[in-house]
Amino acid sequence: MSELFDKHGGFRNLHTFTLATILQLETLKFCRRFITQDPREAGTKFYDPKGRQYDQMTQAAHSGRQNIIEGSKRSAASKDTEMKLTDVARASLSELREDYEIWILDQSQRPWSPHSPKSQELNAISLDPAIFTDDMVHESARHAIEQRKKYPRWLDAYDALTVANTMLIIIGRAVNMLKSQIEAQGAALEETGDFSERLTTRRIEAPRKNREPSPECLQCGKPMCRRKSAKGEFWGCPGFPDCKEIRPI
Question: Where are the beta strands (DSSP E) in the chain?
Answer without folding.
Answer: 35-36, 46-47, 225-229, 232-236, 246-248
